[in-house]
Amino acid sequence: MYEAFVKVSEEIDEEGSEFDFRYSLVDHLFTDALGWTREEGEGHVKFEEDRKDVLCYDDSDPPFPVVVCETKRPSHEIQYGDVEQLEGYMKGVGSAKYGILTNGHSFNLYRYDSDDLELSKVGDVDIGRIANADGPDSLSEEQQTVIGELEYFRQDRHVALGDADYFQKTYQEVPVGYQTGADDEGYEIFLEAIKDSLDELTDVMIRFFEDYKSRDEGSYPKDFLETTFPDWQEWREYTGKSDDAKETFCRETAYIVLNRTLFARIAEDKEIVGRTRLSSRGMANAIEMDGDGVYLEGLLDTYDEIDDHYPDLYELGIFDWWWVSKDKRGQFSDEERRKQQELDEELNYALATILKRLNRFDFEYVNRDILGHVYEDYLPKEERKELGEYYTPLEVVQYMLDSTGYRATESIGRRKVLDPACGSGTFLTEVTERLINHFLKKFDERSVHGLSADDARTVLERVEENVYGIDINPFAAHITQINLLFRTIDLYDKVTEKNPDYTMDGFEIHVADTLSPSTLEEQEESPEQGQSSLQQFADYNGRAQSFIDDRDAVDRLKDDEEFDLVVANPPYVRIQNLSDDVKETYSARYATAIKNFDIYVPFIERGLDWLSEDGKLAYICPNRLFTNDYAEEIRNRLGEEPITHLIDFKDTEVFDAATPYPCILSVDMTKEVDEDVKCARFAEEMEGVLEEIYHLDEWSGSEEAEEYDLFKYPQQRLREDNQDEYLKSWKPMPPDEREVHHKLAESSRFRLGEITDSVFQGLITGWNKVFVGEIVKEEDGIAYFVREGGDEPEPVEKQILRRLLKGNEIDHWGADWEGLWLLFPYEIESGDVELLSQRKLERQYPKTWEFFKRHEEELKAREGGKWEDEEQWWAFGRSQNLSKMEPDKIMTNIMSSYNRFVADTDGEYYFIGGGNAGGYGIQLTDEYAPTSEDHLYYVALLNSQVLEFYHKHISPIFGGKYYSYNKRYLEPHPIVLPSEGDSEEEITQIADSIQTKRQERTDLQYRTSDILNYLADYDRASTVLDLADSIDLDDDDYRQDPMRKNDKMEVDTEEVYQVVMKRGHTIDFGSESVRDFVYDLLKAQDRRLGRSEILNTEVPTEDDVLELMDEYRDDEEEIERLESEAEELQEELDDIILSEVYELDEEDVEVIDEFLEVW
């Protein structure tokens, strides 16, 4: 020790940094003298962190800090604030018993008492005086005492303790919580310990799972697992499928074991249970008496003990599939008994590690605020998504409860609340918080700790009696239980001060399918309803029976209960993801479950049925509720209920996951049905916007609020909207927009659907990787075709190819074809379509048949192998609309942020369809469009501001303010026929001019997109080397990505124009135009280039390059001119259509302009 101080003193530099001094201290004192290592494993010292200067870790699992050393630079004088800083570190760490504060001169030792949370000074010495002594024997008594105290800092005193010693000596070292003046090191260590424990438990549960599955038929663990696991998989269909069901099932099991263990430790430290069985002396004694299996036995014993206090959490259920009781073990063969013992030993070993970790934490002062964050913190967002857990943001939850009047300041003490899709309990935990705060106000207390035991019991029992939740996922229900338990643990702690034997009745949280009929309803429909496999298994297993008992409780809830508030974020699951049995059940039970419904629809119906006479409902669900055809009946039902709020978030993201865009729906049975509905729509995300809206004095928008609109909409009009003969949907909008919308409908006698033969979807090949590609070369009627799924050109007959658009190329007035072709193995005659037979392909299109044969296996394998046994496996996946591509048609992109219509009267283009991709086509009837030219008039209307305004009020919105342009939302467009107005000729002429300019612009854009398009007109009589002024290239491998242009000024003030191939590698030119040409030319190669290849690239002469670049820039200017002229013509056309065709006035036009600026 003495030598260490001498060396530290010798290396101190007054001007040196704190880090330099710290390095010296670690090197000589901590490493050489005290035995700590630099590498993690057997007790290591760490000193690179920003805040805690030097930390010594015991390298347990996880490593806990046991020594904290706060260093200051040698020129810094130690002050009282430095001592407070050290104390804050040590309180935050908790597990460190010893601390050092030093600047290289003054060396101060401290001892920390984690029970009293106090830091006491052991002593201090001057390092220089120790170094100047004649040796260790000449040190003063005080110096020797301080140096002797450093013996407690040695590595071997903190590493590799025996299990019994470990539990006694490390108990309650680290406080779990946020303390004033302390950092959160303890909380971070706790989270790390929990995450590691979860991973290890999951691995053990996977081994249990695999072992049970491999056992012989008739084995009890195998039978029970094979009964529970399929049921769990069925539940998971509602909450999000997992890529690895086994691992997810085992991980959820591990969560529950860990949550129970954690709660047991909290109960010990809060002295809710009488003795410590999992920690401290209780575990140490058990280890000394019987070291085998003590951790698993201790956990199960604690289950039994805490079961007396809160039975719901520890009642054995489906997630206890891994546990086998002693009586069942008695039926095992010797081999099965051996296997079970091996598994128990693995679990016992994992629990030993976990309980050692938890032993070091002090949970005595953990409160509901801290525990409320634990689950969310140790379960990462990505994993919550994988487990099907999507959290409704707190701001949304609070707004929904506020808007229904469920506030702490209101009379909510006896109001019954139900969340029928409770998930992890986001709504119910906030309900519980408000209920507790309500009673704190009533009892005039600031916190639960101020309540009497009797008052605390009143609050606790009100929570148990009035807060209900149902979820089909048992894991989600368990997490809700845990969250509510964490929120009420202080209340329970308070109650047990007076009555230690008090037992909670448990929360009304149930595992069930909310939408399934109750047993009574099933018996009424089918008296001979059979038992489920779970019911049959319950005859000899109590864990399955507990779920059946819970189902009975849910039956009573469904048949008998009414609620004052039903609040939920119901699951969004399309009917395609449900089993046939479930579809039939829901369709029979719920009148609103029609067409391809989403299950949030029957959830709304079920919620309404649960409401009491003065009940309220608040749901956040997809805003497709407003527009989709499957929601027609639920809109009818809601139209007869007193709706108070419709909050449409449009395309703003509310959740932290890819979910449908939501809306908030509120119903209040105390209101009149025909009152105005308070509506909102959001154009942009805005933090705190719901709270801002809630506190507004009046429900109306303001000019300052650009992010949202507030308006009222008559409920009678909602009913009328949903009876609209052209589009049954809700169309809430502000009054001025509604007036314009109504004028448009009134000004036209026809809708688009009434003047068309067909509004049709694009083609679905079923496998674009074969049928779609590019032509790289043509020779004698043969096209060399590179399919999307390949790289090599393959010969096919050009005659069988069609120009193809994928949807995004369909634009305003034109198509930006990107060179894709469709292999079209059909022939069409007089509208009849016939697939080319093998015989005809072999005779007329032999190259194409050879192409198909090469990809036969791939085509047969598409759509899950559906085509494996088909004779004509080269057909498209769908045969609809094959004959509609060549006749006159109007095309549009199915998903767009603006109206994009173009006429194709030459049958030039085919287009892809399917889902939210591709395009839609419109075929007008001969009566209303007898010639090809007539299509321009209708394209003019469809591309106008008028119909864009109309469309965006009736179509569902997607991300980026994209709208759907499918048949449902195209056919209602109001159309004024050309014969009904005086402007047909003028409109058609302007439309033709716009389309012509658009085509000219497209041609020029294609030409300017590649400098190679200009080279054909010039001889390549020079090289890049001839054009360059100077060259600084020495590599033989230049990539495209780093290439850039650079301008620089030389000393003689001459401008130099550079092509920079990469840093320090340049080609200099005296002309900007020449430089730009070479840059574009090299970029167009789209591959790696060598120095020699670059310099020897053949190019026109410098004069020709200058002429070529003038031509290029003229084309760019012409593009701008054409765009400007087309925009002016479009404005002129819009004016005519607005005022003369649809007869709108200036105020109407202003409404449309303001709307389209945002939407």
Q: What would a concise description of this structure say?
A:
The chain has 1159 residues and is α+β, with helices and mostly antiparallel strands.
3D structure, described in words:
The protein has 43 helices and 42 strands. Mean pLDDT is 88; it is low at 178-182 and 529-544. It is of the alpha+beta class. Helix 3 packs parallel to helix 7 and helix 6 (163-169) runs antiparallel to helix 10. It folds into five domains: 2-160, tt1808, chain A; 185-381, no CATH class; 391-569, no CATH class; 754-979, no CATH class; 1022-1099, no CATH class. Residues 465-655 form the Type II methyltransferase M.TaqI-like domain. Residues 1105-1139 form a coiled coil.
Strand content: 15-25%
Quaternary = single chain
| Mean model confidence by pLDDT | 88
Strand order across the biggest sheet? 11-10-9-12-13-15-14-16-17
Q: Pairing-aware structural class of the strands and helices?
A: alpha+beta
Q: For the CA atoms, what is the radius of gyration?
A: 38 Å
Tally of domains = 5
Helix content: 40-55%
- Quick one: overall form? globular
Q: State the low-pLDDT regions, or none.
A: 178-182, 529-544
N/C terminus separation: 75 Å
Strand segment count: 42
Largest sheet: 9 strands, mixed
Number of helices: 43
